[in-house]
């Protein structure tokens, strides 16, 4: 396989890892107003992702760095053209991270309430805008002959892209609520299961609409196959949640997100940034990639370090695998 093509799929894999892992973080954050009936409930929810949220976010850093090194033209066009949208994502992620660290620093209810809203908004904004960004990448945006984006922020907020954003928002929300059911116990676990059942129905409808729209506009054989896997996994996850099989439901939600992201990359291939105004201005894997030497060095680096990263992350999740309950929160408060 050509190294540029290989790195196209490695970048896809890195974004899959990011959306699967940080996706449920976003979902848990967005669920605070629905599942957190009091401060202890909200602390339970935050503690389900407390040990892992920052590790999950490193995936987007690795994905961005890989994009920069492997496809510098793609990186330049994407980060300059989508600058305001990506800046909003960055500000939201900063606000969310600050909230996790500072929420517990003072006992006043108003202090905690403000940081809770920062977590909610800081989770919802990236969940929405990542979908908007990827939908625009697949659909194509206006580029000039030098591959510079010549549209505006409002051009990115078109119906197809907004549907893509709503799809990722709902997918991450349901993914996070299923994770909350997996990691909690008692009443909050039951509330999470009921909420996942309700949000899952809406997620299935919206995600199916987006995938069908994408398929008819940009679909390939690989896209339709991956989209079918995503659809079946999403329905299976919803059914598993209804049976109280949280582990199965969570695993199938992860498969859903992974298959959906790979499907979008399959619809994009062999382009990396199609030009909607003139196909001659499109960025492709061939004209956007780095030199073969650079890609060779990156390949050996990834071969050595990626398994170590995956092993470390797996070990982290194993260490913090136990459920978080109100009793553990109360016990921690005493000490």
From TrEMBL:
Organism: Agromyces flavus
Membrane topology field: Multi-pass membrane protein
PANTHER family in UniProt: CYTOCHROME BD-I UBIQUINOL OXIDASE SUBUNIT 2, CYTOCHROME BD2 SUBUNIT II
Protein name (database record): Cytochrome bd-I ubiquinol oxidase subunit 2 apoprotein
Stretches that traverse the bilayer: 6-32, 74-95, 115-139, 159-183, 195-216, 222-241, 248-269, 297-320
Protein keywords: Cell membrane, Electron transport, Heme, Iron, Membrane, Metal-binding, Oxidoreductase, Transmembrane, Transmembrane helix, Transport
Pfam families membership: Cyt_bd_oxida_II
BP-aspect Gene Ontology terms: aerobic electron transport chain
InterPro entries recorded: Cyt-d_oxidase_su2 (IPR003317)
Enzyme nomenclature, EC number: 1.10.3.-
Family (UniProt): Belongs to the cytochrome ubiquinol oxidase subunit 2 family.
Top EC class of this enzyme: oxidoreductase
Entry GO CC: cytochrome complex; plasma membrane
Subcellular location(s) per record: Cell membrane
Molecular-function annotations in GO: electron transfer activity; metal ion binding; oxidoreductase activity, acting on diphenols and related substances as donors, oxygen as acceptor
């Amino acid at each position: 396989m050509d190294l540029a093509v290989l790195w196209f799929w490695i970048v896809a894999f890195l974004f899959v890892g990011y959306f699967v892992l940080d996706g449920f973080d976003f979902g848990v954050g967005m669920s605070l107003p629905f599942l957190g009936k009091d401060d202890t409930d909200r602390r339970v929810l935050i503690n389900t992702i407390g040990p892992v949220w920052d590790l999950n976010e490193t995936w987007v850093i690795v994905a961005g760095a890989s994009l920069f090194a492997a496809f510098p033209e793609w990186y330049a066009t994407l980060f300059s053209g989508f600058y305001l949208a990506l800046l909003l994502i960055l500000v939201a992620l900063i606000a969310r991270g600050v909230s996790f660290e500072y929420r517990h620093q003072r006992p006043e209810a108003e202090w905690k309430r403000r940081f809770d809203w920062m977590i909610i908004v800081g989770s919802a904004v990236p969940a929405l805008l990542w979908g908007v960004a990827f939908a625009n990448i697949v659909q194509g945006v206006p580029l000039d002959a030098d591959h510079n984006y010549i549209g505006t922020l409002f051009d990115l907020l078109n119906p197809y892209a907004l549907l893509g954003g709503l799809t990722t928002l709902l997918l991450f929300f349901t993914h996070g609520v299923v994770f909350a059911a997996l990691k909690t116990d008692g009443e909050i676990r039951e509330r999470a299961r009921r909420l996942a059942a309700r949000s899952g129905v809406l997620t299935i409808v919206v995600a199916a609409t987006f995938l069908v729209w994408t398929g008819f506009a940009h679909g390939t054989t690989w896209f339709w196959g991956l989209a079918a896997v995503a659809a079946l996994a999403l329905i299976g996850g919803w059914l598993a949640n209804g049976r109280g099989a949280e582990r199965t439901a969570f695993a199938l939600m992860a498969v859903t997100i992974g298959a959906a992201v790979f499907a979008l990359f399959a619809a994009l291939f062999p382009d990396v940034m199609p030009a909607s105004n003139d196909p001659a201005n499109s960025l492709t894997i061939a004209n956007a990639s780095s030199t073969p030497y650079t890609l060779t060095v990156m390949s050996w680096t990834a071969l050595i370090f990626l398994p170590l990263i995956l092993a470390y992350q797996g070990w982290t999740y194993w260490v913090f695998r136990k459920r978080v309950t109100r009793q553990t929160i109360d016990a921690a408060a005493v000490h």
